[in-house]
Amino acid sequence: RSRLGTSGGSSQGVSGMEKQELPYDYVEFLKKHFNLITMKEFLENKNSLSEKIKAIYILPNLKVIATSGAGVDHLDLKPISSFGVKVANSPFAVCTATADLGLALMLAFARRLVEGCQIADSPNTEHFAADWLGDEVTGASLDIIGMGSIGYMVDKRAKAFEMKILCHNRIQRKEEEKQAVGAIYCKKIEDLLQQSDFMMLVVKLKPQTDKLFGKKELELMKPTATLINISRVVDQGALVEALQNGVIKAAALDVTYPEPLPRHHPLLKLKNIIVTLHIGCSSTNSHCLMMKNMVESILAALNGLSIPNEVIPQSDLHLAKL
To answer: What sequence ranges are listed for the domain D-isomer specific 2-hydroxyacid dehydrogenase NAD-binding (predicted)?
Structure first.
């Protein structure tokens, strides 16, 4: 059996979930194929184990790195590839859970759920105000930037709320796919921004999308609009200024940098924001599927087979096309 070290997708350190023991079902499933080194075991034996896995060049038998989730920005793909090591992710395992969270954030802000919970729980609350009003999402405009697998699932869910859905993507979806969810394609991002009641970002982080959504884009949005960010492409400094100055109404973020934010960060001092714990894919079903996807990729690599969901560095992809 092969040796397997399990890890999550964060480059910032060990998350709370990684500190806990893996669910029993996951452990038993993995033990059928590998000798495990869990993150818990690593943390308890950091001094002895860290030297053994310090760098890729002292892992001569390493064949594949399989990561949970879709993001691979925590992996330095070019040097990994130069050692002949394959990389695989689990892009489709996270789609439904992340789309669910995007809608949850939108609904939470529209109906002021966080504020309502705080008031209901406050020792100073003696009555509930009769003029406590939120917004309905039914009939509102939802603009989606990024119509990949997650964005498309957001679109399908939003259709059930009878929302007006505008979308932008680098590559257009087939006409029948857009018609199935009632989405109107906009060639330019600017065409969406001026119509948004809710703007949702569902874009993969790449060099060309880094800080895709910044000061210019925020200033084109309506002052009554809410930004929902479930990707990594927002210029966070520009967002702080926009929220402080009333350029947009509010923002709901599942992704920030760093994670967690420093306790004194200006985003955490604002009242017109919701920040969650980067939990887009944090559901039992998603984690189970990610685990299975990773095992499939590892076993394929060890057996010399085609690797499901292999991630190929852009330079290698370019050479393959020549």
So the answer is: 103-280
* Banded model confidence at residue 179, pLDDT cuts 50, 70, 90: confident
Q: How do strand 164-168 and strand 226-229 relate by DSSP bridges?
A: unpaired
Among the listed residues 278, 287, 310, 318, the single catalytic one is: 278
- Using DSSP's 3-state secondary structure scheme, residue 116 falls into helix
The candidate with the shortest Cα–Cα distance to 158, out of 141, 135, 146, is: 141
E-strand ranges in the chain read 2-5, 34-37, 64-66, 86-88, 141-145, 164-168, 183-185, 198-201, 226-229, 250-253, 273-275
| DSSP annotation of 306 | P
Contacts of 53 (CB under 8 A, 6+ apart): 5, 59
Question: pTM (2 decimals)?
Answer: 0.79
- The one catalytic residue among 241, 259, 265, 310: 259
The conformation of residue 23, written as its DSSP 8-state character, comes to P
d(CA 198, CA 166) in angstroms, rounded, equals: 10
pLDDT tier, 76 (very low <50, low <70, confident <90, very high otherwise): confident
Residue 278 annotated among the catalytic residues of the structure: yes
Task: Assess whether 232 carries a catalytic annotation.
Answer: yes
Tokens of 83: 């050692």
Q: Which residue of the set 217, 232, 287, 296 is catalytic?
A: 232
